[in-house]
Amino acid sequence: MTEFDGxxxxxxxxxGLREFPNECCGVIAGRDGTPVKVYxxxxxxxxxxxxxLDGREQLQVFDAIDDEGLDLWAIYHSHTHSEAYPSDTDIRxxxxxxxxxxxxxxxxxxxxxxRSFSILDGEVTEEELRIT
Length: 132
Description:
Oligomer: single chain
Shape: globular
Order of helices and strands: EHEEHEHEEEE
Largest sheet: 6 strands, mixed
CATH topology: Cytidine Deaminase, domain 2
CATH superfamily: Cytidine Deaminase, domain 2
Number of strands: 8
Number of helices: 3
Helix content: 10-25%
Number of domains: 1
CATH class: Alpha Beta
Strand content: 35-45%
Strand order of the largest sheet: 3-2-4-5-6-7
């Protein structure tokens, strides 16, 4: 089970609601396996059904993570009208096998759901996420 700070959950939900009806996306940095900082990012696709981290912004964020002595802990994005589960596209584009993939469902905007997955070689495994 992974514990996830409620402040981070709120930050991701607020990001998702700001970008709605488009998907939101971002990165979470960690230290020693614990999430410590959320980096909301621009969805370069600006789409309600796909996301793509902006390449220039991604490079800046990854440099900042390195400069702060942190690690890539997770990549997150929202699904605006479906459950929090990786789509076929999400699975195909999961390029960071050591990172978690957090999916936020805003299908019910009054009751957002955040779930965590590892995606390795096309295999999706849910990891229990406890919001503290």
